[in-house]
Amino acid sequence: MGSALPPQQHAYNALFPCYVEVCAVTQFHQTGAKPGGWGGHATLFVNGAEIEAGAGYPRLRLAAAGTGLRDPDSGTGISVNKIFDNVTWVAIPGRDEFFGGGLAPEETLDEEFYEAAVHKATDAGWFSGIGIKDEVIRQRPPAMPSAEFVVRLSIGTDYALNFARTAYCARLPMSREALGEVIAYLNGVNESAQRIGYTWNMYTNNCSHVAHNALAAAGVWDTKMVRGPGAVDIAKDVLSVVRALALSQMSDLSFPANTFVRLYEAGNERPIDNVVAAFRNHDVRRTLDDGWMSTGPGALIATYPMRDASRNRMFAAGRDPLVFSVPVFWDKEDKFKKLTRATPAIVTDLSANLASFRDRYAKTLGNQRAVDDEVGVLHRGESERDFRAFYSRFYQYLADELKRTDLRIAEYKRLAGSS
Fold first, then answer.
1. Could you read off the pLDDT of 77-100 as tens digits, one per residue?
2. What digits encode the pLDDT tens for the residues 347-398?
3. Within a 13 Å sphere around the CA of 370, how many CA atoms are in the beta-carbon half?
C-alpha cells in the first residue's frame, strides 16, 4: 500500500525538526446524518513532541533531540473536544493516523475500514483515561464498552481527520525551547481539567483558544482571555471585539479559520525587512528577546484533503470553517480564500520558500543603515537605548539566519537529489 504522507515531509522534517501546525478543518457531515457545527474545528500538530506514557491521561514531553524527528510520520496530533470532561485535549501519535487514519491513497473508506479504525484506536488506548460529559455518556448503548463509545464520537474530529474533513494548516518552525513552552501550556490545561473539569464554550473557551494560547506561551502573540459560559463572560468577549476594532488589537473571541490565517501572518508577514518597524512590533521584539523570530523560512501552508467522494462511503463534504471578518476594518475572509484556493508557491513549496527568505534576508542586510541614522526616525517616547540594543540583535539574527538558510538550501538539494 502507498503512503498518505506528503511527498516533501521527510525533507521538511529534516530541515525543521521542531514545529507546530495549526489546522482549521471543514464541517463534519456523516452520510445520512445532520451536518455538524458551522464554526469548523481547530487542531494542532506538534513535531518534536511525544506522548508521555504512564501518566493516566494525555500528556506530552519534548522528544529527545534527534530521535526520529526526521521521520515523515513523527509528531503528535492534538485535538480538543467539547464532550471531554476530565481533559481538554487528546493526543494521537503520528501524522498518518492523525490526519489520514492509516488509510492509503488507493484505499476506499467503507464501513469495514471505518470499523477497523475504531477498534484500532480503542485497542491502542489513545483515549484511555478520558472521561466525557454525563449527558453524553448516557447515550452509550448498554452493550458498547465506554472506551469504544468515546472513540466513535471522536473519529473524524480528534483523529482520522481526513475521513470526514479537509484540514487547512499553517506551519510554524520554532526553537526547541519555544516548543517546550507550547508543551508546558498544553500539559497545564490538561492538569487543570483533571482537577476541576473542562468547560467548553463556543465563544469563550473552544478548540481555537487552546491552539492560540499554546502558541502564545511560546511568545508568538498575546494570550486570549478564556472565560466561562455565563452571560457576563460573553458580554466581556463582545466588548473585547469592540475594543479590538477601535484600537487595532486582538479580541478574545477565537475562531479556527482566523487562527489559521493569523499563524500564516506570524510566519510570513511580520516586519523583518525594516529594523524600525520590527522594533515597533511587540511580537517581533518579544520573540527576538527569546532568540528567535516567528517570520522566517518553513512557515508553509499545507492542505490535507478529505477522502475523495469516489472513495468515501461514510462522509459527505462539509462547508469551510467560518471566518470572522469585518470588511475594511479587519478583512480576513479574502486572505483565507487566497491561502486555501490560490495558495502562492512560496508558502507551499519548500524550495521556493527557502529561496524567498534567503533573498529577503540578503536584501534587508544589504539595505542596512547605520544605527545613528535609524535613531533619527524614532518617535518621541521610544527609547533610544532599547532601540540600539534591538538593532544589534536584529541584524545579527538576520545574518545568522541567512547563513542557516544557505545551509538549508544546500541540504534540501541534497535530500531532493537522493529521493
1. 999 999 999 999 999 999 999 999
2. 999 999 999 999 999 999 999 999 999 999 999 999 999 999 999 999 999 9
3. 3
Does residue 109 contact residue 315 with C-beta atoms inside 8 Å? Answer: yes
CB 384 within 8 A of CB 375: yes
Residue 93, Cβ density class (10 Å: 0-12 exposed, 13-18 middle, ≥19 buried): middle
How far apart, in whole angstroms, are the C-alpha atoms of residue 272 and residue 108?
A: 46
Amino acid letter, 192 = S
User: In the chain, where are the structural domains located?
Assistant: 7-273+294-352
Residue type, 178: A
Q: Which residue has the cell 490565517?
A: 261
Strand partners, 25: 41, 167
Do residues 87 and 78 lie in contact, with contact meaning Cβ atoms separated by under 8 Å? no
Residue where the block lists cell 469504544: 148
In the sheet that 301-304 helps form, which strands lie side by side, from edge to edge? 89-93, 76-80, 41-47, 19-25, 167-173, 301-304
Distances (CA, A) of 71 to 59, 183, 348: 21, 20, 20
**Cβ count within 10 A of residue 94:** 19
